[in-house]
Amino acid sequence: MSNDSSTRIVADLDAWVATAPPGARLPSTRELVRRYGASPVTVQKALRALAARGLVESRPGVGTFVRVRPVARPNDYGWQTAALGSPRGLGPWRSTALRTLPNDVIALHSGYPDRELLPERLVRAAFTRAARGDAAVSRPPAAGLPELQTWFATELGHATPAGVAPPTPSDVVILPGSQSGLGVAFRALVGAGRPLLMESPTYWGAILAAAQAGVRVVPVPSGSHGPDPDELARAFERTGARALYAQPSFANPTGAHWSPALAGRVLETVRRHGAFLVEDDWAHDLGITADPTPVAALDDAGHVVYLRSLTKTVSPAVRIAAVIARGPARERVLADTQAESMYVSGLLQAVALDVVTQPAWRGHLRGLRHQLAARRNLLVAALRDHVPAAHLTAVPRGGFNLWVRLPDTTDLPRLVRECEADGVVVAPGDEWFPAEPTGPHLRLNYAGPNPGAFADGARVIGRALARQ
Amino acid sequence: MSNDSSTRIVADLDAWVATAPPGARLPSTRELVRRYGASPVTVQKALRALAARGLVESRPGVGTFVRVRPVARPNDYGWQTAALGSPRGLGPWRSTALRTLPNDVIALHSGYPDRELLPERLVRAAFTRAARGDAAVSRPPAAGLPELQTWFATELGHATPAGVAPPTPSDVVILPGSQSGLGVAFRALVGAGRPLLMESPTYWGAILAAAQAGVRVVPVPSGSHGPDPDELARAFERTGARALYAQPSFANPTGAHWSPALAGRVLETVRRHGAFLVEDDWAHDLGITADPTPVAALDDAGHVVYLRSLTKTVSPAVRIAAVIARGPARERVLADTQAESMYVSGLLQAVALDVVTQPAWRGHLRGLRHQLAARRNLLVAALRDHVPAAHLTAVPRGGFNLWVRLPDTTDLPRLVRECEADGVVVAPGDEWFPAEPTGPHLRLNYAGPNPGAFADGARVIGRALARQ
Predict the structure, then answer these.
(1) B304 and B279 in contact (C-beta within 8 Å)?
(2) pLDDT > 60? residue A33
(3) What number is the average pLDDT over the span A150-167?
(4) Quick one: average pLDDT of A396-402?
(5) Residue A33 burial class via C-beta count within 10 angstroms: exposed 0-12, middle 13-18, buried 19 and up
(6) How far apart are CA A313 and CA A291, in angstroms?
(7) Which terminal CB of chain A, N or C, has fewer other CB atoms within 10 Å?
(8) In terms of DSSP bridges, do strands B195-200 and B216-223 run parallel, antiparallel, or are they unpaired?
(9) What is the ipTM of this complex?
(10) What distance in Å separates the CA atoms of residue A244 and residue A279, rounded to the nearest whole number?
(11) Is A75 in contact with B331 (Cβ distance < 8 A)?
């Protein structure tokens, strides 16, 4: 029964299979039991492991055989070129922020937090509880678990000032992650061929979702204070757009946090043009020296369609987000969500609700704030010390990222390549621009693994930059 | 600490809050502890329960207050009508198959199996194991867990005859449920405005996904033997379509199971037109008196894009499906999947893999086959006994559904309404037609709860039909 003896049998048979002719029959279970002095259970486990890797196949009642692997002949898929036509705006996208890397590099590229920033104990306990509950074997309503809808509505309601009607639980639609929410919002509220205003730079996943939805992206210049409100008003007038996508709190990548005055002006502009603001509050739980202030809380006339995700603060395994929308927009959002994903795993919803309603959740968020502050300060100091040519447009008051402007003459692809050759992975800023980049940038994530290596990472960037 | 005393405090405070003015401050925790003779933990738990329901709100360090609910004034969302325009093919869809109902009705409408048909023990054990593993707190590769990709490829490989190259693990893209797979396939392989051939009748979720993707649906007549191959060839010629969507094994709703001859002819037609067959093998594990025979197993030239889901046989909480595609089509599918959902919860993937690689999984599938056979036979007999006017076009050899033709003169909406008034919920066949229905049909699901009530259900349908 021991794992060790099963592992040994797998290794041994693996070597045997590698040289055996396809279709060859393995010794019988009885023979293997005898040969290895192992139990039948252990032998069966080893055979299943080989089968799972596609090396052997069992024919019940007959035996186990080396899998026949047909000789690989290169297939000509040329006919697909005609059938598929050219990609409609959505080529194969290789985002740097999504790359998975070996442990021995200094990773400043990621879009996701390191495991040590997650409430691991809460998440594991919630999964264990949920495994025993109804949610493991039942189907939730299409719009989501009512208790989770209530939680999302209440969270936004807390930020709602007097005189504004807070959202109700039925305004909430649960989604399998915020990326789905972007697609849903762009399809449901804008539609293919119609204009959508976006900040430039902005979140690369939103640029991707816009391309998939086939909407026409209209970039609006933005920076460390948020979008320019005059340019925004002109873009609405010029294009007749009925929607703006933005991240008002701790925007990715710039870290911009809208002032109350800007939030008021943008909301006023959106209202005047009878338009929607798709507010992506991705960093709601990631404030460091400021608290998020959802624009959605200021609006009860259905202009702001609000998107909030729990994936980044609860766990990457808990792909749960919510759209809060009112009026007919909510119906459109729900219809598109159903067409896209029917419903979201009730177990993941139960786990998300369990984690965020634990008393320890608030404490976790306070600890996260301190850790993010320390990590941010460490990376800022490392850049000041070792990359003097880099200009940090602003120290972000929340979120995961520093947005670094490099000298105009920087050869960005070469810089990224040379850093990687020296064991430091960074994300080129170009991926965050829906239009031509306004200059060479890096987006550096301070929420990744091993902050102790930030100084070394900055040194490598500094040296690579100095060589140019 | 007892649940009972917490429940009692909630009930008590609930009554108090109902009559208190908004903004009123609740007694302090200390006071509540004294008043109820409960522990501070119990009191806090009660307050959290009230907060979760949106009745009170806590201001840390200040106290707990009755939530201010602004006077509900009806909002005018009329401006949204102009911003949204008319729905682009995707109105609010209320599928009968998705309805959740109270326990006291006879439910023959559902698209999902009853809990007693699920491998509940395996699912719970897998979730419990996964809660302790890496997958609970980490992010898998975008295309899916390699071991799960291998499993899906191996499953299809088992059906691949000699001389045809089986798919490789890298041809597999993991998705959050098969509904997502339909959207992905229609967007990635067809695209808005282009023609897609579909059987009529066919799965309503596919009709919905096609509307969402904005493709132009071209219906091809189909029945209990599958689509008419001559009509199919004519439709390809007439429209220049480069894709067909179909369910060759135990189609929903007709139960059609393609003969080898039909599979060969369809594949030949698809090849001749340089087109794709999007094969939705939804009932792969639901054979009763026949085994599924994927058309994808016969093709290694990238013509068949194969979709298989585990949601219906593992658990509705395990939203896991896979697309298997080769050549550039696989790149398009992966790009669209990433744009739509970034990646699928690694924990759900780990659970799915755990369940289907357990030795008990095969035994579960054998038991499922027997249960489906018994349930199908029971409902067929009940219809013969009590609904003589209904015509069962064929007894399906797999799947969940009977497809019942009613007399031409049947007033279908009235029939459905009257059955429901008598406690029997049935799905009107119209929802499965992408074009005008060819006649009044019912789709009756024999995998739902309480097969002991099938006879009573049939009696109600028979009586309602006799009244017309």
Answers:
(1) yes
(2) yes
(3) 94
(4) 97
(5) middle
(6) 15
(7) N
(8) parallel
(9) 0.85
(10) 8
(11) no
Alpha-carbon separation of residue B400 from A106, B114, B391, B397 (angstroms): 52, 11, 18, 10
What six digits make up the tokens of B427?
A: 């799905």
Percent of chain B at pLDDT > 90 equals: 75
pLDDT tens, position by position, A249-259: 999 999 999 99
* Per-residue tokens: A65: 């055989």
In the predicted model, residues of chain B with pLDDT beneath 50 are 1, 92
From chain B residues 254-283, the ones with a CB under 8 A of any chain A CB are: 274-276
Hey, is A450 helix, strand or coil?
coil
Q: Is the pLDDT of residue A299 over 90?
A: yes
B75 at interface of A, judged by CB pairs closer than 8 A: yes
Q: Which of A47, A59, A68, A79 to mutate to test the interface with B (most CBs of B within 10 A)?
A: A79
Of B179, B161, B199, which Cα lies nearest the Cα of B98? Answer: B179
Q: Is B121 on the interface with A (CB under 8 A)?
A: no
Structure pTM? 0.86
B289 within 8 A of B373, measured Cβ to Cβ = yes
Task: Find the range with the poorest average confidence among A104-108, A280-284, A364-368.
Answer: A104-108
The continuous run of DSSP H or E covering B227 comes out as strand B226-227
CA distances for B211 relative to A111, A336, B90, B202, B235, angstroms: 33, 10, 6, 14, 19
Residue A94 pLDDT class (50, 70, 90 cuts): low
Least trusted range by pLDDT, from A109-113, A220-224, B85-89 = B85-89
* Pairwise pLDDT comparison (B279 vs A5), residue with the higher score: B279
> Mutual orientation of helices B3-19 and B40-52 as an angle, nearest 10°?
50
Whether residues A344 and B319 touch (CB distance < 8 A) is answered with: yes
CB contact under 8 A, B139 and A345: no
How far off is chain B from A223, nearest CA to CA, in Å? Answer: 25
Encoding tokens for residue B213? 């993707």
- Check if B101 contacts A (Cβ < 8 Å): no
* pLDDT score of A95: 75
* Backbone phi, psi, residue B196, to 5°: -130, 125
Separation between Cα atoms, residue A416 and residue A418, nearest integer Å: 6
- The owner of tokens 């252990």 is A42
Residues 6+ apart with CB under 8 A from B439: B405, B406, B408
Q: Return the residue matching tokens 């050759």.
A: A421
Tokens of A259: 């002032």
Q: If phi over 0 gives left and psi between -120 and 50 gives alpha, with beta otherwise, what is residue B466? A: alpha
Task: Quickly tell me which residue has 């023959």 as its tokens.
Answer: B108
Range with the poorest average pLDDT among A196-210, A401-415, B86-100, B217-231: B86-100
**Among A318, A349, A7, A6, CA closest to A173:** A349
A257: left (phi over 0), alpha (psi -120 to 50) or beta: beta
**Closest chain B C-alpha to A446 CA, distance in angstroms:** 18
**Partners of A278 in the beta sheet?**
A245, A305
Residue of B nearest to A205 (CA): B339
B294-313 pLDDT, tens digit per residue, is 999 999 999 999 999 999 99
Q: Does the pLDDT at position A383 exceed 50?
A: yes
Dump strand ranges (E) for B15-143: 56-59, 63-66, 106-107
Q: How do residues B173-202 score in pLDDT, each as one tens digit?
A: 999 999 999 999 999 999 999 999 999 999
Please give the DSSP secondary-structure letter assigned to residue B21.
P
Are A2 and A36 spatial neighbours (Cβ–Cβ below 8 Å)? no
Taking only Cα atoms into account, the Rg of chain B, rounded to an integer number of angstroms, comes to 26
> What is the CA angle A403-A304-A323, rounded to 5?
85
pLDDT of residue B3: 58
Taking residue B9's Cβ as centre, other Cβ atoms within 10 Å add up to 21
Contacts of B179 in chain A (CB under 8 A): 339-342
| Cis-peptide into B201, omega within 30 deg | yes
